[in-house]
Amino acid sequence: MNLTSEESKKVITYLLFVAPALVIYLLIIGYPIIKSLHLSFTDYNVYTNEAVWTGFKWYTKMFNQSEFWMALKNTMIVVAVSVFGQIPIGFVLAYILYRKLVRFRGFFQGMVFLPITLSMVIVGILWLKMFSSVGAITNLLRLIYNDPQYTIGMLSSKTWAMVPVAFALLWIYTGFYMVVFLANLQRINPSIVEAAMIDGASEVHIFLKVIIPSLSGVVVILTIFAIAGSLKGFDLIFALTGGGPSNYTEVLTLYMYRYAFTYFNYSFGSAISMIIVSMSIILIILVRVIQRRLTGPKQV
User: Fold this and answer.
1) pLDDT tens digits for 229-265?
2) Which residue in 173, 165, 150, 171 sits closest to 248, CA to CA?
3) Which of 75, 86, 118, 191 gets the highest tally of CB atoms within 10 A of its CB?
4) pTM reported for the whole predicted model
5) Which residue numbers delimit the ABC transmembrane type-1 domain (predicted)?
6) Domain boundaries defined on the chain
C-alpha cells in the first residue's frame, strides 16, 4: 500500500508515541518470558549462576509427574468455574438490575461487587474459616441434617477440596462481571427495545434477538479476562488450601512456585511457566476462533 507523505508523517508520529511504551513493555514482559524460555532448557545452578544446556529434560520430567496432571486438572477446573460460572451468574445479576427486578439496586450492586475490593489473602482466610469444622458452612449443614456432630471436612477431603475454592472464586469475581455487563446493558438504545415491544416481540424474543447480540463482543473480552485470570491465579488458593491436601488443590502456579521458590529449581519452574503461557495463548486463540465462527470476523 502506497502512502502519501502526509500519511507517512502521521504513521511516523504514531510510532514515535508508541515506541517508548513498546520498549518498556518488551523490557518488563518480553525479557522475562525469553529468559524463562531459555532457563527451561537448561540446568541452572542458583548458587554458581551457571546454566548447562539440557534440552527437553524438564519438560519430559514434568509430563511424567502425576503432580503435573493433577495441577493441570485443577487449573482447568478453575478456568471452567470462571468461564461457565462467574460470567453467566454475573450476567444474570446484571440483567436483574437492568430490568429493575429488585429493590435497593444500588445496595444490591454494592454488596455483590464488594468482595473484589478485598485482599485475596483475606478472602482465602475468610473462606478457610467458613469451611472449617466450626465454620458457618459446617454449622449450616448440621442444621440441615439435624446432626450436631455432622462434618464433611471439605478442606481435608481429596474429593471435595476444590469445592471451597470454587465457592470462593464465584463469590469474589462474579461482582466484577456483573458491573461490566450492567454497564454494557445500559448502553443499549432503549428505543430499540421499545420498538421491538411495539412490534409484538416477547420478553424472550427481545432477550435473544436484541440483548444477547448486543453483548457478544463483551462476552468474548470477559472470557479472555477469565481465562487469563484463572491461569495466573495464585494468592487465593495459596491462602485457602496451600495446594493441599496432598496437592489435590494445587494449580499450575502453585506447582511452579513450589519447585522454583521452595526447591529452588528455577529451570523446572521456568518450564512450568512456559506451559502456563502456552495454555493461555492456545485458549485465547480458541476463544477468538469460536467467536469468529459464531459472529463473523468483524465482531470485536
Assistant:
1) 999 889 999 999 999 888 899 999 999 999 999 999 9
2) 165
3) 86
4) 0.86
5) 72-287
6) 59-295
